[in-house]
Amino acid sequence: MAAKQRLDKVLAHLGYGTRSELKKLVKSGVVTVNDVLVKDSGMQVNPEADRIMVAGEVIVYREFVYLMMNKPPGVVSATEDRRDRTVVDLLPQAFQPFDVFPVGRLDKDTEGLLLLTNDGKLAHNLLSPRKHVSKTYFAKIDGDVGEADRVAFTEGVTLDDGYKTLPAELQIIQPGSNANGVYAEIELTIVEGKFHQVKRMFESVGKKVVYLKRISMGPLALDPALPLGKTRELTDQEILDLQRHNHI
Ligand code: URA
Prior knowledge:
elongated, 3 domains, 21% helix, 4-stranded antiparallel beta sheet
């Protein structure tokens, strides 16, 4: 159960305005707590137990939000950037007050599944190198991809900085490529998250990733109905699956 907090803090967290805006709003007589009109925006409330209404509507309080984005290319996985647009800039206004951040990074040109949340504990667990959370990518590759690559990835390959990767699972969807821009298509599941890992793994076997999209992370799969650049909240089941996964 949430602790008691100032009314204006609760409402600010949900995006109803700044502290000073809320002072005016509450003074104007549109806010009730347990059906009693209140005028003091600093009053203490329990946002989970008390029934708070603003202009006749009951507020739905929650501390954490969990969002799935289908990241488009051309935006960076950060909360702020001096040059580029960030994934946070793409979020609908309703999610802005929650101060979410991306759980891990996708390269600027990579698309697909990105989890954003303000639940630091869940994010920390998902990103912990000790947890070996699996991430599956779909990629198009310039070069022929074959059994030798599958074996090499299973055994671990050595990246340009000398790091040897943990076993990864390569599924070849379409092996061949030719000079006419027909690329090989694969799915690769890795259990770590080194910088540019998928691209560098293919470089280590002499091939180039020309398109990269993340399709799953742990138990969470990219919703195929979610258009590029769009975000939706996780379902209760998806949140539960992530929390359970974290406790393994
Ligand atoms: N591997 C990469 O090379 N890039 C990504 O964005 C994610 C994994």
